[in-house]
Amino acid sequence: MSVETNAKIHWIAACAPNDIDEEDVMRFDHEGASYAVYRIADGYYASDGWCTHEQAHLADGFVVNREIECPLHQGRFDIPSGKAMSAPVCVHLKTYPVRVENGEVLLGLPVQEAS
């Protein structure tokens, strides 16, 4: 797994591009946090993995028309922006930058400041 760090973001290899079918989502866990990595027609995206309404992992949900549907109560979020789109979800998802380089889908995570 490659890691590249710049001033505010470090890039972590989450998977290979072909690990996710178009219109699908997969779970990626890293350093105690869980993320959802999506592939839709216009590219790859990532967000926090847990629904903001209840403890359901979005990787168990369904990708429908650029939205992820939570598997528990069917609330939907816009994949590119993380915006809550339908009840019962009302708190937006945190999203993360994604890029594809050298045969890897890289997730941009904030650098943790040392305490």
TrEMBL record:
Protein name: Naphthalene 1,2-dioxygenase system ferredoxin subunit
InterPro entries per UniProt: MocE_2FeS (IPR012747), Rieske_2Fe-2S (IPR017941), Rieske_2Fe-2S_sf (IPR036922)
A single GO molecular function term of this UniProt record: dioxygenase activity
Naturally occurring in which organism (per UniProt): Paraburkholderia piptadeniae
Domain called Rieske: residue spans: 12-107
Stated family: Belongs to the bacterial ring-hydroxylating dioxygenase ferredoxin component family.
Record key words, sorted: 2Fe-2S, Iron, Iron-sulfur, Metal-binding
Names of required cofactors: [2Fe-2S] cluster
Pfam families given in the database record: Rieske
Record has Transmembrane as a keyword: no
